[in-house]
Design goal:
- The structure is a single chain.
- It contains 8 helices and 8 strands; from the N terminus they run βαβαβααββααβαβαβ.
- The protein is an alpha/beta fold and 251 residues long.
- Strands 1-4-5-3-6-2-7-8 form an 8-stranded mixed beta sheet, with helices on both faces.
- It is globular.
- The structure holds adenosine-5'-triphosphate and magnesium ion.
- Magnesium ion binds next to α2.
Length: 251
């Protein structure tokens, strides 16, 4: 895919978003005008056939959010490498093409930290730095993708116990700021896999719901059942069947 086809709306000559309310609630996040997006980030470009599963998933998710009132949504999977960050990024990009939505994507997988790479953002201290109190303001962490409705909060890998950060007062502060955002905001959290450690469970219970990514031919029924049990009582808003040959959603 060439750089132009997955470029944000600005590059496609489409109108952009207005002033951006940062997750921090004060000030304005920096705007990335020419992000070096991963070629696998197709959700910004509805003309790309590979964006269709994400647009379908987008519609199903919005329906679910409207029904339930959920706004803070985690994306996890039973085991690693199922495609969580890929799905979270493309879903966020797809949602951000809707003019009536404000979308925030927060990387809470502090041990893998892949969202920054997907969006080509490497100049922020990251969410981990905010959680460890090295960075004071969340506004310094976020980056708006120019002329889209998407603001990304990447992280860098942290070398302290990520589980402790998940239940820290800084985390509570981040989540309460997310809850204070405008009603049309959708806040997606890229989470670690459920079986890797207790990070996902610790955060998921503070969110409104989770999407569970299942890797076709790899994730088995027992794994999925085990993950759902561990996530209980967090509402599971849907499962997403991810296939490396194109991706199928099943929410
Ligand atoms: N449907 C897909 N089509 C093409 N590539 C995919 C698809 N799903 C995942 N990938 C690729 O597979 C790799 C693993 O995906 P990703 O990093 O999203 O998984 P993850 O579940 O977030 O992994 P981790 O548990 O390590 O965080 C990445 O290179 C990603 O781009
Ligand atoms: Mg990931």
């Amino acid at each position: 895919m060439d750089r132009h086809s997955n470029a944000p709306r600005e590059a496609q000559g489409l109108p952009g978003a207005g002033a951006w309310p940062p997750l921090a609630g004060i000030g304005q996040v920096a705007v990335v005008s020419e992000p070096d997006l991963s070629p696998k980030l197709v959700g910004f470009d509805s003309k790309d056939v590979r964006s269709r599963p994400f647009n379908l998933l987008r519609a199903q998710l919005i329906k679910k959010l409207t029904e339930t009132g959920a706004r803070l949504v985690g994306i996890t999977s039973p085991a690693p490498n199922a495609g969580k960050s890929f799905v979270a990024s493309n879903l966020a990009a797809s949602l951000s093409q809707l003019s009536n939505k404000k979308v925030y994507l927060v990387d809470l997988d502090l041990r893998r930290a892949s969202i920054g790479e997907i969006f080509g953002i490497n100049d922020t201290a990251g969410v981990g730095s905010f959680l460890t109190e090295s960075t004071e303001a969340l506004v310094d962490v976020g980056r708006q993708i120019a002329k889209t409705n998407l603001t990304v909060y990447p992280t860098r890998k942290v070398d302290v116990s990520s589980s402790e950060l998940m239940v820290s007062s800084r985390m509570d502060s981040l989540l309460s700021r997310a809850r204070a955002l405008e009603p049309e905001a959708i806040i997606l959290f890229d989470l670690p896999p459920v079986f890797a450690n207790d990070d996902a469970m610790l955060v998921a219970e503070k969110l409104d719901g989770v999407l569970v990514v299942v890797e076709q031919g790899v994730t088995n029924k027992k794994q999925l059942q085990g993950a759902l049990q561990l996530l209980h009582p967090t509402p599971v808003l849907g499962t997403i069947l991810n296939r490396f040959d194109g991706g199928t959603t099943d929410i």
